[in-house]
Amino acid sequence: KVYQHLWKLFGAITLDAAIEGLDLYSEHTEDAQKNPGKHPNIDRLLSVMEDEQPLDLKIIKK
Fold this sequence. Notes:
The structure is a single chain. The chain has one domain. It contains four helices and no strands. The protein has helices at 2-10, 15-24, 26-34, 40-51. α1 runs antiparallel to α2 (15-24), α2 runs antiparallel to α4 and α3 crosses α4. 13% of the residues are buried.
């Protein structure tokens, strides 16, 4: 749901979206930084921050 929210606001997971997403995940961000792989959704946002390369999303309804 966080990624869908970010996509609606930004149209992709951009640097600004990653910043917003990390804020939304704030209670887990430090743990994710200390334990890579434990929180893959946060890892992706951190990667966007490091690489400054946006992620495109495709929302699929079930």
